[in-house]
Amino acid sequence: MTYVLVHGAWHSPWYWRDVTPRLDGPAVTVDLPSCGPAHGDLHDDARAIRDVLDAHSDVTLVAHSYGGMPATEAAADHPAVKHLVYVAAYNAGEGETLMGFGAQAGDEPNVNPEVDCDFTGDGLLAFKPDRAEHVLFHDCPDPREAASHLRPMAPPFAQQSPNAVAWKTIPSTYVVCTQDRATAVGVQRALSTRAARVHELPSSHSAFLSHPARLAEIINGAR
Fold it and tell me: Dihedral angle at the C-alpha atoms of 18, 153, 85, 88, nearest 10 degrees?
């Protein structure tokens, strides 16, 4: 089994560094174009994931947060993907967007771009470092270092939805992070009903840094 790991919005493969050594098979991380110099969109991200999947067989595809949306599109009808793991992730359906999920959060803690983000001079959306420490990394060993690895993104990703939906045909596991301040816990629990198995971690949005051993254990057991 090969583990293919997909990071979330504003993130990078760096965030999986404490999880990959604990996996019981080879691990490959995907660097999403939306967070890199190309500043692509959700569908560019899906193509990047699919390119990685094409090079492997018998894959467990793991996605965090926003990464669940392009992963859901990329894995649809892909013969290599045997299981999906969504970590506080948006296992969205057709027509569902990040903005729509944000509206469902109600009064729960959730990323608020007007408070948590700034626009850069070239029109990209960047997470404020101090807000990231509070919203994304509050229980991590070094919130400041974690925030320093975030990258800006082009805004369209928040209004896009997947063109195909893998979790309808591929078995999946959902990890609810119960101390999350970025993805509303109520939204996570609603999305988790789309998965065959559900685990809960007393974690912030960033279980890969705050609970890497337990998260790796869940991923290793996902079949």
Answer: 90
Q: Which residue has the tokens 């470092």?
A: 129
Q: Which pair of tokens denotes residue 16? A: 């999986």
Per-residue pLDDT tens for 95-121?
A: 999 989 988 988 889 899 889 999 999
Active site amino acids: 65
Query: In the Cβ-directed half-sphere of 127, how many Cα atoms lie within 13 Å?
Result: 24
Yes or no: say if 73 and 166 are a contact pair by the CB < 8 Å rule.
yes
φ, ψ at 120 (rounded to 5°): -80, 175
Confidence of residue 70 (pLDDT cuts 50, 70, 90): very high
Whole-model pTM: value is: 0.97
Q: Enter the tokens of residue 173.
A: 């596991």
Give the per-residue pLDDT at 105.
86
Determine the distance from the C-alpha atom of residue 156 to the mean position of all C-alpha atoms in its chain, rounded to a whole number: 17
